[in-house]
Amino acid sequence: MKNFIFFLSFIAMLAFITACGADNESGAETTEDQNQSEESASADTDSSDAEDTEIVVNHELGETTVPVNPEKVVVFDYGVLETLKELDIDVAGVPQSNLPPHLEQYESDEYTNVGGLKEPDFEALAILDPDLIIISGRQGEMYDELSELAPTIFMGVDTADYMTSFESNVEILGQIFNKEDEVQAKIAEVEDVVNDVEETTKETDGKALIVLTNDGSVSAYGAGSRFGWIHDELGLPQADENIEVATHGQNVSFEYIAEKNPDYLFVIDRNAIVGGEDSAQKTLDNDLVNGTNAAKNDKVIYLDPNFWYISGGGTESVREMVTEVRDGIQE
């Protein structure tokens, strides 16, 4: 009898141990499933974060994946530098030669000197190890080399569609640096001045000629050219509708200026930037130019070459450039 009772107890103990083992296995499976779910959720979150930390920028020279809010930014375009300054976005490196007066703060030792506008210092760039490089036309030929150092985007302004290009560039900066609202406010400021000038030009039949002087020589710029948005965007008619569209303008003579007889003569003095003996005023002070409607009516308008020749395309320079045109017409 005792043996039988012992046998029953042994069977019950085995059943209890088996049940506990099954529960442990079930619990282990549940824990494993939870761990897998958590890992999957973590992977999804990481994937989402990756999408939020970079954007793809399509530009004239290619397609570049750019980090959002990059820490070390190198800017070779002074127009872009203006915009970043106005948005309170710091940069790490700039070309410090030929900085215009409104950007002189970047001459400080706080910023790495990355060479010249046409001659980047690749050694300095490599040491800096930037997260983003922004270039424009003067550095276009070196895009591939710069891209090997860091994500590089081209943000030059399309002179054939100036304002659209300008606004697009500024909006891209807003996306990169999470400043969309501030960017729209800056664009609105520029648009207000542009609209003001357009209203003014509607009230005049006067024709304009844009020239750049350089050590005694003169080049003219028409619609679609580097400075042609005075015609294209601001609505001033051309004194000559057949000016060759070229990077350095069309070489012209004083006889040409007298023949076209502009009512407004807009002048950019290159020598004021690069140095030289002959100022624009000295170059244009002759009987042929002084006989034009523009000279006789005090409408020879000398534009600030720091904005028009060196920077341009930034929120500050475009606003100031448009204002100069407006004031020159109205005065």
Describe the structure.
The chain has 331 residues and is of the alpha/beta class. Helix content is 48%, strand content 15%. It contains 14 helices and twelve strands. The protein has helices at residues 2-52, 78-86, 122-128, 143-147, 162-176, 180-201, 229-232, 254-260, 271-274, 280-284, 287-290, 293-296, 305-310, 315-330; strands spanning 54-59, 62-67, 73-75, 93-94, 112-113, 132-135, 152-154, 208-214, 217-221, 250-252, 264-269, 300-303. A five-stranded mixed sheet has the order 10-9-8-11-12. The protein has a three-stranded parallel sheet with strand order 3-6-7. Strand 1 (54-59) and strand 2 (62-67) form a beta hairpin. Helix 5 runs antiparallel to helix 6 (180-201) and helix 6 (180-201) runs parallel beside helix 14 (315-330). Residues 1-20, 22-31 and 40-50 have low confidence and may be disordered. This is Siderophore ABC transporter substrate-binding protein.
Short recap of the structure:
It contains 14 helices and twelve strands. With 331 residues, it is of the alpha/beta class.
